[in-house]
Write a structure and sequence with these properties.
The protein has 197 residues and is mostly helical. It has two domains: 1-93, Up-down Bundle (Four Helix Bundle (Hemerythrin (Met), subunit A)), CATH 1.20.120; 100-197, no CATH class. It is 79% helix and 0% strand. The chain contains six helices and no strands. α1 (3-30) runs antiparallel to α2 (36-62), α3 packs across α5 (135-153) and α4 runs parallel beside α6. It is globular. The model has no long low-confidence stretch (mean pLDDT 87).
């Protein structure tokens, strides 16, 4: 296993570590004695895991460590980390008003389920599914990470509702774009299978 793949696996393992620390901090908040050291450990683990995403990509590209395993695991590790953060900070408030609305989490999960289902359908018909990242998907991830940071750091004295609205717009927008890509691929497959129809 390459070093890049080991870093990817390390990022995957950071997700449950963050979750445990976040829950412990949430419980201390409920008890009225917030353990801020635990919160900063949770934030540190999340930041470390997020930064590792760039590190493993850099190593894979510059040291010829690209692999099928890494290409498969990298997006999974990213999604697991992001979903873990979103879900935990939905159900474990970090103080009065410092949480992610449950409706946003439900929307995000529904979008991912639809995309995964679409990929499965395309794979059934086409065998090969070319996934082309769309710029809205990248901004979607950025706004979701911004929302997580807004809640975790608790620096900005404004409700997390504002970054939630931004993340919602791009979560829906990117979902529509990927849905359209999938429809185009299905139409292309139909035209190849039924020329002149």
């Amino acid at each position: 296993m390459t070093l890049a793949s080991k870093i990817t696996l390390g990022r995957l393992l950071c997700a449950p570590v963050f979750a445990v620390l976040a829950v412990y901090y949430g419980e201390s908040v409920k008890a009225g004695t917030p353990e801020e050291t635990i919160r900063w450990w949770a934030v540190g683990v999340f930041i470390f895991a997020s930064v590792s995403d760039g590190i493993d990509g850099y190593i894979a590209r510059h040291f010829n460590q690209r692999s099928k395993f890494g290409a498969f695991m990298d997006p999974i590790a990213d999604k697991v980390l992001l979903l873990t953060g979103i879900i935990v900070l939905t159900f474990v408030p970090w103080g009065e008003g410092w949480h992610i609305p449950i409706w946003f989490t439900a929307l995000m999960i529904a979008r991912d389920i639809i995309i995964i289902g679409g990929i499965a359908i395309l794979h059934y018909f086409n065998q090969h599914v070319p996934i082309r990242p769309h710029w809205t998907g990248k901004i979607c991830t950025f706004t979701q990470m911004l929302l997580l940071g807004w809640v975790m750091l608790k620096f900005i004295p404004f409700s997390p509702l504002y970054p939630t609205i931004a993340a919602t717009i791009f979560t829906v927008w990117s979902g529509i774009e990927y849905f359209r890509q999938g429809l185009h691929q299905l139409q292309d497959h139909h035209e190849v299978e039924n020329p002149g129809s």
